[in-house]
Amino acid sequence: MQIPQSVDVVIVGGGVMGTSAAFHLAEAGVSVALFEAHELASGSTSKAAGGVRANFSDELNIALGARSLELLAEFGKRPGYEIDLHRPGYLFALTNPGDVELFERSTKLHHNYGVESRMISPHEARSISPLLHTEGLLACSFTPNDGHCTPEAVVLGYASGARKHGAHIFTQTKVIEIQTKGDDISAVLTDKGAISTGAVINCAGAWSPTIAAFVGLELPVTPYRRELAITEPLGLDFADLPSSMPMTIDYSTSLYWHREGDGILMGFSDKTNPPGFELLRDPRFPEKLGALAEIRAPRLLDLGIRSGWTGLYEVTPDHNALLGEFEHVSRFFYATGFSGHGFLQGPAIGEILRDLYLEREPFIDISALSAERFTESGELRPEMNIV
């Protein structure tokens, strides 16, 4: 497919953010070209655990998660694609009094945004998540309408929908320069040719600082390796596990698990990993995972590991997204740095990027997520309900 001479908007990055933005813009009648350096969903999106939730401590993230869940629930109709959405809930297991207080405050915020949420006892938590070992637990946070779906399917669904509305989507095409005239964008150069445009949306995830540097914008995004595993099929010894078992997270250690096909998907955030783009699997990961499981979910130790993979978190200093328009170059937008909760916010972010380009008010005020908050006069927004 030949690169067109010009489009209204160029999107860089073919993960959930880029394809969601492409779909929502193309649906609104905007001409779009999306460029992905590799294959669609080949970056962080395809490596995600697939969790979708509104259980956060920051009001913006609650709103973004809730809106994305609404859009994912209708995904089969718009854009029209099967994403294998399951909504058995999210369960955070809490062992520290301070964490209980945090989630009690979060629960009140959830209710303000119409999110069903409640604090439950360890006994009730074990009844809905039978692998959970409750010794040492003080309480749990449960949001019953959260869940998980297939990340690649969401990306392919948005890409397919965008194409139906006329968007041009190019894979194996690397953006190598953004040209400007004064403070205005004039063109984007790729390794396959140039395209004239007046707007660029940077959705390149862990690689977004490189794209931003083309226009002189510094984005504080740092990549960190994360790893997960999928167990062998569950046998008769696990017949007691409900098919609707929630995504369960031991908050203090970040150990998590949920049903995945005929097995269990599980992982944790290994804080000992150094920053960087290294994706080699850690030979000690099963041992580290087992040490955490022995305390909070010992029955997981009876399951062998069938497969697994590594991916990148794109982390900001306050674990909150960077979202907005660059103040020094007109029509350069960015959506990056989601720090592990990008996949689940992608649907809502696509709507917001559409509205920012069309100069319409988004459904929430996202000014607090501007990259300018990391200047001396900025205000950080730490998200605490992270995995």
Question: Can you describe this structure?
Answer:
This protein is α/β, with parallel strands linked by helices and 387 residues long. It folds into 2 domains: 9-48 and 152-221 and 318-374, FAD/NAD(P)-binding domain (3-Layer(bba) Sandwich); 90-144 and 223-310, D-Amino Acid Oxidase, Chain A, domain 2, CATH 3.30.9.10. The chain is 26% helix and 25% strand. The strands form 4 sheets. The chain has an 8-stranded mixed sheet. It has a 6-stranded mixed sheet with strand order 8-2-1-12-19-18. Strands 9-10-11 form a 3-stranded antiparallel sheet, with no helix packed on it. Helix 1 packs parallel to helix 6 (151-164), helix 1 (16-27) packs parallel to helix 9 (342-357) and helix 3 (59-73) packs across helix 9. The model has no long low-confidence stretch (mean pLDDT 96).
Give the helix/strand layout.
Layout: E1 9-12, H1 16-27, E2 32-35, H2 44-47, E3 51-52, H3 59-73, E4 90-94, H4 97-112, E5 118-120, H5 122-128, E6 139-143, E7 147-148, H6 151-164, E8 168-170, E9 175-181, E10 184-190, E11 193-196, E12 200-202, H7 208-213, E13 222-231, E14 247-250, E15 255-260, E16 263-268, H8 285-296, E17 305-315, E18 322-325, E19 332-336, H9 342-357
